[in-house]
Structures are given as C-alpha cells and as structure tokens.
Amino acid sequence: KIPEVNGDFYGLGKTLSAEDREIQLKVRAFMEEEIRPIANDYWNRAEFPMHIIPKMAELNIGGLIYKGYGCPGKSALLEGFIAMEMARVDTSISTFFGVQSGLAMGSIYLCGSEEQKQEFLPPMQRLEKIGAFGLTEPEVGSAVAGGLTTTCKREGDEWILNGQKKWIGNATFSDITIIWARDLDSQQVKGFIVPKDTPGFQAEKMENKMALRTVQNALITLKDCRVPESLRLQKAESFKDTAAVLRMTRAGVAWQAVGCARGAYEAALAYTNKRAQFGKPIASYQLVQDLLVTMLGDLTAMQTMVHRLSVMQDEEALLDEHASLAKVFCTLRMRSIVDHARELFGGNGILLEHDIARFVADAEAIYSYEGTKEINSLIVGRAITGHSAFV
Ligand code: FAD
User: Fold this and answer.
1) Closest Cα to residue 108, out of 200, 176, 202, 163?
2) Cβ(191) to ligand 1 under 6 A?
3) b/e map of 211-223 (b: 16 or more CB within 10 Å)?
4) What does the pLDDT look like over 162-213, one tens digit per residue?
5) Closest Cα to atom 18 of ligand 1
6) Is the CB of 32 under 6 A from ligand 1?
7) Rounded CA gap, 277 and 274, in Å?
8) Is 366 in the pocket of ligand 1 (CB under 6 A)?
9) Is 98 in the pocket of ligand 1 (CB under 6 A)?
C-alpha cells in the first residue's frame, strides 16, 4: 500500500486551533477545486483568472490579521498557513493575494488615517476593490530606501506625482495603487492612494515574463498626476513607514516559498510512486529515495522555521532580521527542492501539464522579489555583526 502524500511531515498544521485549521483546509479545497484545474492554462496565456476573485472573497480571508474594518483579526500564523496553501497549488494566486491583503491593505492599515482605513479597507477585505503596491522603479530596485526617483510636490490641497514604477503586481486592473514617492521639499518618502482613473496615471502590462506569468505586473508612468491631500497616507512620514509594511509582508513571502516547495515535493513523491522503470516504481530505487528525503528534510526545516517566525510575529517580537533570515533560507531551499522535483520527473519535468515546470519557473520570481537573497543577507549580516555593508 502506498502511503498518503503529505508534505507536513511533523504535523505543524495540527498546531492550529480547530477553527483556524478549518479555514486552512477550506483554502486548500478552494485551491484544489477552483485553481488547480486552470492554473497551467492561465499561466501559459499570461492572463489572470478574474472570475475567481468573488469565489476567493467567500473564504473571508482578506486582511486576515487586521483588527476592525471588517477584517477577521486572525493570527499571523494562520495567515502564513494560508499563503502556503495557495502557493502549494499556484504561486501566482498567492502573489495576487499577498499584494492585495498584505502590501496594499497593509500600507493603508499601518499608514492610513482613520478615514482612509474606513473608506478603503472594508471593500478591499471583501475583494471588491483591488489594490497594488508601487515601490520599485525601472532604475531602482534593491536601493529603494535611499534612492527613489519618483517625486511628489505639494501644491495647495494637491500633490503632483512624477516618475515611473516597475514590476507592480495587480496594477493593470487594480482600483487603487499605493505609490511611494520622494517629497521634493522635505526629501522624505511619502505614500499615496492613487485611483486607476486619475489623469496622469498609466499602467502598462509587462510582457514576456518567464515566471509568475499569471500575475499581471505593470510598468506605471506618472506624469503630472494630481492626487488630493486626502489620499496621501497620513501616517507615512518617511521610508521607515514603508519598511514597516515590508517587514510585515516579508514573512509571508517565506511562507510562499514553503508552499511552492511543498507543492513540488508532493507532486514528485506521487509521481515517483506512479512512474515505473525497469519494472518497478522509480520510488523504490535508493537514489530516488535519497533525493526525496533530502527534499523532505529541507521542507520540514523551512516549515518549522516559518512556523516559529509567525509565532514571533504574533508575540510582536519579530524584527527585520528575523523575517530576512527566513526569506533567504526558505527561498534558497525552495530553489533546491523544485530543482530536485524537476529531476525526478525526467522529461515530463519540463512539460507544463505536470505542474513542475511552473513551480521551477515561479520559484525564480519569489527568489528575487521583496528583497533579493543578497539584500536580505545584508540585513541579517548587519544585525549579527553590527556592521552595515550597505554603505
Ligand atoms: P537590483 O536591485 O538591480 O539587483 C540586481 C542584483 O544586484 C541582485 O542580485 C541584488 O541582490 C544585487 N545587489 C544589489 N545591491 C547589492 C549590494 N549592495 N550588495 C550585494 N548585491 C547587491 N516591486 C513593487 O514595488 N511592487 C510589486 O508588486 C512588485 N512585484 C514584483 C513581482 C515580480 C515577479 C518581481 C520579479 C519583482 C517585483 N517587484 C515589485 C520588484 C522587486 O521587489 C525587485 O525586483 C527586487 O527588490 C530586486 O530589485 P531589482 O530587480 O531591481 O534588482
């Protein structure tokens, strides 16, 4: 008898309360029933399945950890499990959701005024309003902290935005985009909620990506784009506030890496039991088992790490370096796991229909976004040595 495929070898899912576990399993069912059958097709066509948004809204997981404004006020631990469940089937869908619920809603939740929160968070929680987060620029990626070139200038009750943003997920169809820009007067970074129909705001779809093809990334151009003071994030005073949003979401990216790796491991384990060569399932060969066990060891280490990370977040003990270490470690191990999985599929590993090719490609995007391996390593390096290698 072939044992059941289960990438949660140490049973970490069982540490959730019965109510939270039910939510986790509801998300799993949604991903298996609604997303898995269409994931490769949408990825191949580089289109986003807009029709799934109302069904996803029924899960009531938008803004999961926020308190008030119609948000469920759940733990960061459950939020991590949900990111993993989504990425386990389709990393593009977990990215769409991470941008909406983490980066866009998180910016408003942490940096918005009471009125802004009341206006934007409830419809975003219900996924009726979609958000995007515009920080990276064509010429400024890792160095955003001191190097933003997009500018804002106050003129009476309005701000004028000029510049470009690159890679902005969801922004081709989002109702609002959070734009981070440098104030020409104070030189500090400020944040703005920019509605899509604002004159001077233009979002153009980025084509020809070889990873996360389902996610719609945009190149945004802001040309004398006028935004009222009422849409400036009232509590965003400097880049420190932008960084607080990223601190909150980076842990989620580590969980996404776990999900991508888990999806690949589970697919490989099932496949090696089904695929026979030399008259026996390939899972019965020692070299194949060694590879599977190496993958499982890495996967289990990743899961226990992010589990502890989220508990620390719930205890309000999470520091930048904690999240950065998990992002570095988990994305590195994810890359290795998807690579081994692809190997175990032989030629089928490069065919989209077996899912693995998609996992291998998508891993490359998670590896780079929300801070590359080098940048997150330098954040940890600074914390443990006391020396900043950035300057
Ligand atoms: P660069 O900064 O140009 O780095 C290139 C290389 O140089 C990297 O290996 C980097 O580690 C290395 N490097 C740079 N500085 C140093 C240093 N001091 N020491 C050592 N090595 C260094 N951004 C958003 O604002 N919103 C989004 O929604 C969004 N979504 C994204 C989705 C995808 C699929 C991708 C790929 C990116 C997305 N991004 C988004 C941008 C993402 O956060 C950046 O790609 C990332 O921060 C890295 O910046 P970069 O690509 O410009 O690389």
Assistant:
1) 176
2) no
3) bbbbbbbbbbebe
4) 999 999 999 999 999 999 999 999 999 999 999 999 999 999 999 999 999 9
5) 390
6) no
7) 10
8) no
9) no
